[in-house]
C-alpha cells in the first residue's frame, strides 16, 4: 500500500514513531494507502523548522513570495489530471467535479492569494497634528486544520493567505482525505518556497490536531470543520489567547417564493441539496417552498431527480459518488431513519445504493427528499451533511424568514424570487454570513466568507484572510 509521508523542514518524512493507519477509497470500500499517525514529536520537529525559516520568509519581498506561490500553482496545474484522479479516489467526489472544482479552485486559491499578498497594505490616518500609519505584520508560525469534504480546495484556501502574509505554516489536512495534500507537499521544494516555510503533518484530529491546538509556539489557528470540533479548538485556544478563525457547520435554507422561475429554481435547489453528495457546508439541506407552488415545485424536483447519475466516480458522466466513509454513510442513513421516526415521508431515495461492478462495496446513498416534517424536529435542526433534503412549505415572507432562522446555524442561504425588493428585504433579515439570490454557491474570492451563530467566527476570503494572518501595528508621530 502506498505510504503517505509528512513534509517537514523541506523533507518528506515518515512519522517519527513509525505509526500509520489505513486510508480507504470510499467508492470500493477498501483501504489503499497508509497515513502517518503523527504525534507531538513530529509537531516539535515541524515547529522548530518553521521558526527557523520564519525570519527569511517574513523579510522576503512580497513579490518573491508571490512568485514561489504562483510557481506552486503552476506545478499543480501541470499535474492537474493526476491530482483530480487522486482526489476522486480519496474522497469519492466524481472526477469531473474534482477536476473543475476541487483542483481548479486549489490552483486559483494559490494564484489569488499570491496576488493578494502583494496588494495587502496598511492604512494612513491624519488627525490634527497626529499622522499615523499601520503596518500589518505576519504572526510567525501559524496552523491550518482542514476537513475532508473539499480536500484540495479548503487545504489551499487556508494555507495560501497565511503564506502570502509572510507566515510559516503547519498545515494539517483531514486524515480521511490526505492524498492531494501529500501530493502538493511533494512539489513545494520545486516551487522555490524555502525549506521549513510550509510543513504538512498528517494524522488524527484528536491526537495531532489537538497537539497543534495547544502548542504554545503556534499563536494562530485557522480551522474549517464541524461545530463540535471548532468549539473544542476555541476553548483550548482561549487558554493561551490564540487567534482563531472558525468555519463550521451549516443547515442552510433554500427559499423558493411563488414568483420564482420554477425550472431554474428547481435546478438550483437540486444542485444546492445534492452537490458533492450533500457534503458541502453550503448545501441547502432545508428547502422552503411557498405553499401556493409547493406541489408543482415538488413535481419538478421529482421529475429531475432521476437525471442525477449515481455511480463510479471515476466515470466521466457520473454526478453522484459515494459518501466519504462507511462511518459517514451510516451516520447519514441513521438520520434518514430518524426522519421516518419523526413522522417524515420519504418522497424519493432514502436507501443505500448498490452500484454494479467495481464499486459494489462503495458507500453510496440515493439522493433523498423528505417531506411532512416540522421545522423544529431534529432532522430539520441538525447538520446531516449528506444527500438528504427536507421540503418545508411556508405561507408568507415572514414565515419563511422565521423558519430559515430557526436553527443554531447561520452559514448560507439561497433565495429564489423575481421580485428584487423582496430579495433585498429577505436577504437583510436572514441570519447567515452569505445569501445568494437566484443562484447558489457562486464565489468571488474577494468577498468575505463565513458564518454567524454556530456556523463560525470570523471571515475568510480576500483581505479578511490576510487580516487574520497578520497583526496590525499602529505607528503615530506628531507633525
Ligand atoms: P471535523 O471537525 O471532524 O474535522 C476537521 C479537521 O479537524 C480534520 O482535519 C480533523 O482531523 C481535525 N480535528 C478533529 N478533531 C480535532 C481536535 N480535537 N483538535 C484539532 N483538530 C481536530 O470535520 P469533518 O468531518 O472533517 O468536516 C465536515 C464538517 O466541516 C461539517 O460540519 C461541515 O459543515 C464543516 N465544513 C465547514 C466549512 C465552512 O467553510 N464553514 C467548509 C467545509 C466543511
Description:
This protein has 479 residues and is α/β, with parallel strands linked by helices. The chain folds into 2 domains: 2-248 and 455-478, Aldehyde Dehydrogenase, Chain A, domain 1 (3-Layer(aba) Sandwich), CATH 3.40.605.10; 252-444, Aldehyde Dehydrogenase, Chain A, domain 2 (3-Layer(aba) Sandwich). The protein is built from 16 helices and 23 strands. The chain has helices spanning 40-59, 62-78, 80-91, 95-119, 151-164, 179-185, 188-191, 205-214, 227-239, 262-274, 294-304, 326-341, 378-381, 397-404, 420-429, 462-468; strands at 2-3, 6-8, 11-13, 20-25, 30-36, 124-127, 130-138, 141-145, 168-172, 198-200, 220-224, 243-247, 252-256, 284-290, 345-348, 352-353, 364-365, 368-371, 388-394, 412-416, 434-437, 456-457, 470-478. The strands form 6 sheets. A 7-stranded mixed sheet has the order 15-18-19-14-13-20-21, sandwiched between helices. Helix 2 (62-78) runs antiparallel to helix 4 (95-119), helix 4 (95-119) packs parallel to helix 5 (151-164) and helix 10 crosses helix 11. It is globular. The chain starts with a strand and ends with a strand. It binds nicotinamide-adenine-dinucleotide (NAD). Residues 145-149, 154, 172, 174-175, 205-206, 209-210, 213, 224-226, 229, 232-233, 247-250, 281, 383, 385, 411, 451, 456 line the site of nicotinamide-adenine-dinucleotide (NAD). Nicotinamide-adenine-dinucleotide binds at residues 145-149, 154, 172, 174-175, 205-206, 209-210, 213, 224-226, 229, 232-233, 247-250, 281, 383, 385, 411, 451, 456.
Amino acid at each position: 500500500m502506498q505510504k503517505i509521508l509528512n513534509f517537514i523542514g523541506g523533507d518528506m518524512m515518515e512519522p517519527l514513531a513509525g505509526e500509520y493507519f489505513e486510508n480507504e477509497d470510499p467508492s470500493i470500500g477498501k483501504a489503499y494507502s497508509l497515513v502517518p499517525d503523527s504525534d507531538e514529536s513530529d509537531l516539535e520537529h515541524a515547529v522548530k523548522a518553521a521558526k527557523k525559516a520564519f525570519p527569511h520568509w517574513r523579510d522576503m519581498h512580497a513579490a518573491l513570495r508571490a512568485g514561489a506561490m504562483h510557481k506552486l500553482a503552476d506545478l499543480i496545474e501541470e499535474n492537474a489530471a493526476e491530482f483530480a484522479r487522486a482526489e476522486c479516489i480519496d474522497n469519492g467526489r466524481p472526477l469531473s467535479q474534482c477536476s473543475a472544482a476541487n483542483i481548479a479552485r486549489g490552483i486559483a486559491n494559490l494564484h489569488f492569494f499570491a496576488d493578494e499578498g502583494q496588494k495587502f497594505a496598511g492604512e494612513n490616518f491624519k488627525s490634527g497634528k497626529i499622522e499615523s500609519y499601520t503596518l500589518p505584520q505576519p504572526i510567525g508560525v501559524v496552523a491550518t486544520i482542514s476537513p475532508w469534504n473539499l480536500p484540495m480546495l479548503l487545504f489551499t484556501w487556508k494555507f495560501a493567505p497565511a503564506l502570502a502574509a509572510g507566515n510559516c505554516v503547519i498545515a494539517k489536512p483531514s486524515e480521511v482525505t490526505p492524498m492531494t495534500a501529500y501530493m502538493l507537499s511533494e512539489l513545494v521544494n520545486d516551487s522555490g518556497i524555502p525549506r521549513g516555510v510550509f510543513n504538512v503533518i498528517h494524522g488524527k484530529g484528536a491526537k495531532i490536531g489537538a497537539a497543534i491546538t495547544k502548542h504554545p509556539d503556534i499563536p494562530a489557528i485557522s480551522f474549517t470543520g464541524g461545530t463540535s470540533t471548532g468549539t473544542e479548538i476555541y476553548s483550548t485556544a482561549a487558554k493561551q489567547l490564540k487567534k482563531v478563525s472558525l468555519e463550521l457547520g451549516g443547515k442552510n435554507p433554500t427559499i423558493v417564493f411563488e414568483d420564482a422561475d420554477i425550472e431554474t429554481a428547481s435546478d438550483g435547489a437540486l444542485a444546492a441539496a445534492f452537490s458533492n453528495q450533500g457534503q458541502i457546508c453550503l448545501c441547502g439541506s432545508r428547502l422552503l417552498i411557498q405553499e401556493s407552488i409547493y406541489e408543482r415545485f415538488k413535481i419538478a424536483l421529482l421529475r429531475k431527480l432521476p437525471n442525477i447519475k449515481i455511480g463510479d466516480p471515476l466515470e466521466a458522466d457520473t454526478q453522484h459518488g459515494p459518501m466519504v466513509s462507511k462511518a459517514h454513510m451510516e451516520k447519514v442513513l441513521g438520520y434518514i431513519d430518524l426522519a421516518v421516526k419523526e413522522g417524515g415521508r420519504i418522497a424519493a431515495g432514502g436507501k443505500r445504493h448498490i452500484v454494479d461492478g467495481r464499486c459494489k462495496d462503495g458507500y453510496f446513498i440515493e439522493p433523498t427528499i423528505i417531506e411532512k416534517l416540522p421545522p423544529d424536529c431534529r432532522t430539520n435542526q441538525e447538520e446531516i451533511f449528506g444527500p438528504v433534503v427536507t421540503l418545508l412549505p411556508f405561507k408568507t415572507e415572514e414565515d419563511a424568514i422565521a423558519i430559515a432562522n430557526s436553527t443554531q446555524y447561520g452559514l448560507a442561504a439561497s433565495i429564489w424570487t423575481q421580485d428584487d425588493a423582496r430579495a433585498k428585504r429577505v436577504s437583510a433579515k436572514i441570519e447567515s454570513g452569505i445569501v445568494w439570490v437566484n443562484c447558489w454557491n457562486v464565489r468571488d474570492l474577494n468577498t468575505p466568507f463565513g458564518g454567524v451563530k454556530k456556523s463560525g467566527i470570523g471571515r475568510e476570503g480576500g483581505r479578511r484572510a490576510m487580516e487574520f494572518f497578520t497583526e496590525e501595528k499602529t505607528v503615530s508621530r506628531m507633525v
